[in-house]
Design a protein that fits this description.
Blueprint (H helix, E strand, L loop, with lengths): L1 E2 L3 E6 L9 E7 L7 E5 L2 E4 L8 E7 L9 E7 L6 E8 L9 E4 L2 E5 L3 E8 L7 E7 L7 E5 L2 E4 L8 E7 L9 E7 L6 E8 L19 E3 L3 H8 L14 E3 L4 H4 L9 H14 L4 E8 L22 H17 L8 E6 L6 H4 L4 H9 L1 H14 L4 E6 L3 H4 L2 H16 L10 E4 L17 E2 L2 E2 L14 H14 L7 E5 L20 H8 L23 E5 L2 E5 L55 H9 L6
Parallel strand pairs: 1-8, 10-17, 18-20, 19-20, 20-21, 21-22, 22-23, 23-26, 26-28
Antiparallel strand pairs: 2-6, 3-5, 3-7, 4-6, 7-8, 9-11, 11-15, 12-14, 12-16, 13-15, 16-17, 24-25, 27-28
């Protein structure tokens, strides 16, 4: 999508080393919307040295007066190679504000003998009262009915507040997941159809599909209704409120009663809702992403996300018996066999054993073996469940991108997995950038760029790192993991929930400065003060929307960190969640050695980690890239 009056990019690289220089052209088709043009990167040259480094092509959309989202095909071609077509779509900014119904979601699974809801609101303020009716079609499964909310009234005061419509599914004796259409209508407005699907309880559970190489392919993502409602309640939030996000189990109590913020449900609640959504999404499979996040001495270098368990207080045993065993028992329930479950294993754990053992809590985690033993135990228990896919956290390029961290981290991951019951086969893949802000791709420079004879690596921002963005790091790290014993079919996930860095501060092209640091500062789309800053970053935006197999070696772009949930509080807040106050979340703090003693760049007035942070969510919407 190319915003009218702006630009967007895609990247090109070769899949193997050429024998000489290869020229790739990017040509806009003669037909289509001529306002869409290739403004940079029309001709790219790949050599035997840079063939695997993505190079960006910039597409521009000129301002026009129409209200059409025009399209144009860009042909990516090179002599002797199969060409690739890129469809560019203008995101028009001239669409007039017209009244319409906003319905979320439009497909609802209703458990037999139970109820489910969808919400309705208006997209703009009316001049008077508006009545909205919700009517079940004459055909379809008559057991599905509107039990509450058949008629809703919106006023000039409550038009943007979602109102719920409750659907009920009566008990029956068949084994059919019947469907019925509900028409949402109001005089003068375009009606919306909601497909209700009965989730039958008379079927036989326990049939597992074969374990998939990439579980994200052919699957839709579970939408957490708590997060969805919180997002939809924010101005403009309905644009992303149906996006799949991770379910975080950040303490023992969260297994049964939910976590903080926008997650009030326990694991069984989410899995039951996932079954409903699976029944309503047709032939597609459904994948639910569950974050396993409760190691003893958790996040030993970041106080804001410390946890409830301590190594010195029998934490490892409690982690195994009260946490992992309970989660595994729930996930292994045969009724959840139709689902694909992606387990995101222990964010920020193993990398701390490489870089932060100068801190007492991290040193204790290393010397006791608690992190390694805990992760290995979780891998073995969850891998034994046929429809669970384990993805281990692998930090991000701004943490592990130096050679002193890169290889040792891979080796630690390999030895840890090898000690699990089932060995390295317990790992389906790895995830990078979880809950972080590293740019997916830096479009205006690569690690091989030079400025006035100086390498990008020499700049203060890059600081001799071997990577400048997350995609290049994830792909290279995958190769290293395979070298260290993991299967060649492991896949990587990249959390793109908050790394879009759009908005007015986003550069539109490379700097013309011949000063290295000025060039990097003016060219980088990652607008953090320092790449080590991680808490509630000011100026951040939503990143790439979740999708499967977006690049070589990447299983999916995902939103594991639910946008709008805080990374930590900007000041000390007493709590019973085991979460401390980390000065990296304080916008007045001058930093430490892990962020070059820089300002934190954190937003003010933030709540505890995991709690809803409205002003952050609104900024993420505003700065989304690709734009909403």
């Amino acid at each position: 999508g190319v915003p009218e009056g702006g630009t967007a990019t895609y990247s090109v690289r070769l899949n193997s080393a050429p024998t000489g220089n290869v020229t790739v052209t990017n040509t806009a088709a003669a037909g289509g919307d001529t306002n869409l043009t290739v403004s940079a990167g029309a001709s790219l040259t790949f050599t035997t040295a840079n063939w695997q480094t993505p190079q960006n092509v910039t597409v521009a959309a000129a301002e026009d007066a129409d209200t059409t989202n025009g399209t144009r095909t860009i042909t990516v071609a090179s002599s002797g190679l199969t060409s690739v077509s890129v469809t560019a779509t203008e995101a028009d900014n001239d669409v007039p504000s017209t009244q319409s119904l906003v319905v979320t979601p439009t497909s609802v699974g209703v458990p037999e003998g139970g109820t489910a809801t969808y919400s309705v609101r208006l997209n703009s303020a009316p001049t008077g009262n508006v009545t909205v009716t919700n009517t079940a079609a004459a055909g379809g499964d008559a057991n599905l009915t509107v039990s509450a909310g058949a008629s809703l009234t919106f006023t000039t005061a409550n038009w943007q507040t979602p109102q719920n419509v409750t659907l009920a599914a009566a008990e029956d004796t068949d084994q059919t997941n019947g469907t019925r259409t509900i028409t949402v209508a109001s005089s003068g407005l375009t009606s919306v159809s909601v497909t209700a699907t009965e989730v039958d309880n008379d079927t036989t559970p326990g049939t597992y599909e074969p374990h998939q190489d990439n579980p994200y392919v052919g699957a839709t993502g579970y939408v957490n209704p708590d997060w969805s409602a919180a997002a939809a309640a924010e101005p403009g939030g309905s644009a992303v409120s149906n996006v799949s996000t991770g379910v975080w189990l950040d303490r023992i109590a969260a297994i049964t009663s939910g976590s903080a913020g926008s997650n009030s449900k326990g694991l069984r609640d989410h899995l039951d809702l996932a079954l409903q959504q699976d029944a309503a999404n047709g032939s597609s499979k459904l994948i639910i992403q569950v974050v396993i996040y409760n190691l003893p001495n958790r996040d030993c270098s970041a106080l804001a996300s410390n946890g409830e368990l301590l190594i010195a207080q029998n934490g490892l045993n409690r982690y195994k018996t009260e946490y992992i065993d309970v989660i595994a028992a729930i996930m292994a329930d045969p009724k959840y066999a139709p689902l694909r479950i992606a387990a995101i294993i222990e964010i920020d754990s193993l990398p701390n054993l490489i870089t932060n053992t100068n801190l007492a809590k991290c040193q204790e985690a290393q010397q006791s073996g608690a992190y390694v033993q805990g992760v290995a135990y979780a891998l073995g228990k969850l891998h034994a469940i046929p429809n669970v896919y384990n993805y281990v956290d692998a930090g991000h390029h701004g943490w592990l991108g130096w050679d002193t961290n890169f290889g040792p981290s891979s080796q630690l991951f390999s030895s840890t997995a090898n000690s699990a019951t089932g060995g390295r086969a317990t790992v389906d893949g790895f995830i990078t950038n979880t809950a972080n802000y590293s740019a997916l791709v830096e479009p205006y420079f690569t690690i091989n760029t030079t400025v006035n004879g100086q390498q990008i690596r020499q700049s203060t921002w890059v600081d001799w790192n071997f990577y400048v963005d997350e995609l290049s790091f994830a792909q290279a790290f995958r190769n290293r993991l395979i070298q260290d014993g993991f299967s060649s079919n492991i896949g990587m996930l990249i959390d793109t929930s908050r790394n879009g860095w759009g908005g007015s501060a986003r550069p539109t092209g490379p700097s013309t400065s011949t000063d290295l640091n000025t060039f990097v500062s003016q060219s980088r789309v990652d607008r953090r003060i320092h790449a080590g800053n991680w808490c509630n970053q000011s100026g951040a935006g939503l990143g790439e929307r979740p999708r499967s197999a977006p690049a070589a070696g990447i299983d999916a772009y995902v939103w594991i960190k639910p946008p709008g949930e805080s990374d930590g509080s900007s000041s000390a807040i007493p709590n019973d969640e085991g979460k401390g106050f980390d000065r990296m979340c304080d916008p007045t703090y001058g930093g430490n050695e892990r962020n070059g003693n820089s300002s934190t760049g954190a937003l003010a007035n933030s709540p505890l980690s995991g709690h809803w942070f409205s002003s952050q969510f609104r900024q993420l919407l505003q700065n989304a890239n690709p734009p909403l």
